[in-house]
Amino acid sequence: MNKFSKTIMAVLIFTGAASFLAPTARAASCCGGGSASSLILPKFSRSMVDLSFDMEKYDGFWNKAGDRIEDPPGSDLKQYRLNLGYGLRLADRWQASVSAPYVWNDNKYSGINSKTNGLGDMRLNLWYEAFDAIQCVWKVKSIKDLKPATYLGLSLTLPTGISPYDDVENSFDVTGRGFYRLDGIALFDKTIYPWSATLLFSYGTHLERSVNREYGNYVEPYHKKLGDRALGTLSFGYSHFLENMSSMTYTAAYSDLQEDEGTIDGKTDATSGLRKRSVAGTIAYSTMERDWIIKATLSHAIKKNGWGENFPTTDIISIGVSHVFR
Amino acid sequence: MYFVRRALNFIDMAPYRVLRSVRYVMIFSLLIVSGCGDYFDDLHPDGGDKRPVAVPGTVGPLVGQDAKDFTISDSLGNAVTLSTETASADGVVLYFTMWCPVCDSHTSNMRSFVVTRFPNITFFLVDYVSGSVADVRSAQLSNGYADFNVLADINDVAEKGFDATMGTTVVVNSSGVIVMNEDYKDGSRLIDILETLP
Fold first, then answer.
1. Is A130 exposed, middle or buried (0-12, 13-18, 19+ CB in 10 A)?
2. What percent of chain B is predicted at pLDDT more than 90?
């Protein structure tokens, strides 16, 4: 496979993976939001910088039973996030990245108007690429050509955001959840031009922590742990090349995010846990050299009963640009 | 041999690359930490008991203080006075809601496991985000809580009186003293407190 094909593959993996790993609308000022996108560095490149801007619009929520409820009359709830990421290749098969969101909450009710901002929860990622050669093909000539590119990752979420347990005045200030979380991630990607498919699984566990303050008020200390979190994303992409050999890639994805019930002092907290299922579409443009990628994603929550539990119904528009250093 | 060679290659390359990037990481971290100050308590949580000591007989939001009395409208337009309610029951529970998923989960849990267990306690939801009694009533009905008494805290009197926010649960006993003021959690803590009331 020539170098050009390899770079195409790398761009496809990057644009697809970056889209799937983007936060799938879990952020909410009331439940703590503001996670950052993960990054996957293309093969044969040294480092990468990623900058993206998200606008998340709230439109009701699903209750614990999965029934969708409208927001109060006169309310208009939004969150904006500026995500900055940096990825660095450590070795042929290893790479690491850090990503940080800055969050603006814009909450408007008929009786309250609140605008707050702050750093969100940062993420540190370590990836292992379980392949040496590019796994994309133009034609399937043997069974080996069906082998996908496999990435195995660890992601540590740091509670750098403003959480309910910080010295805050009220819930509108919140930009993070306040817990460390360690995720294991497996990403499988296969491209048979011009089509591609990606499957992602991640499973994460929150670390238990002590709490002695809630929304700025000191309380009797206790121990709290959020539930384990699982995410599955399946996506399909199609790309075509323009006359100047730059490319456009179109991706459709389906995500299912679930978080188990947490514990308080070791006892199950039946009011916690969440689920959200969503669909997303991404358009990505990359230059001929494949060193600049511009992408736009719309993540849409299905506003019907049964598509989520204990979670806001939100749509997210994300626009971003990435630069790869080779 | 293949894996050994790979391991050696990784060991050989990684330190140089990491060292080269350390300065950027340090600069980035310094910028963040210097800009956010006290907000980094979550990185190393403090589990110590730092509750301020309340002076009995004083009015304030702390447990052990007298609740600041108020009169506000409920969602049907009736005036509700806290002192009147506490005097006519074993106690009053106020749950502050902004009609969000967490609020709904708490309220649903409270309705299922707490309210029916304490018939001599008066329960109120307090809507502190809606701007009119009509909006409060509309939110109450669309969220399925027609069976609850909902207070319309239009001027944030109750919210400020208890230093409350989303999910805050306040219990005031029949003497008007605050015996609980914290986030709802799973309901067991509220039950424990209510069982201590005469």
1. middle
2. 77
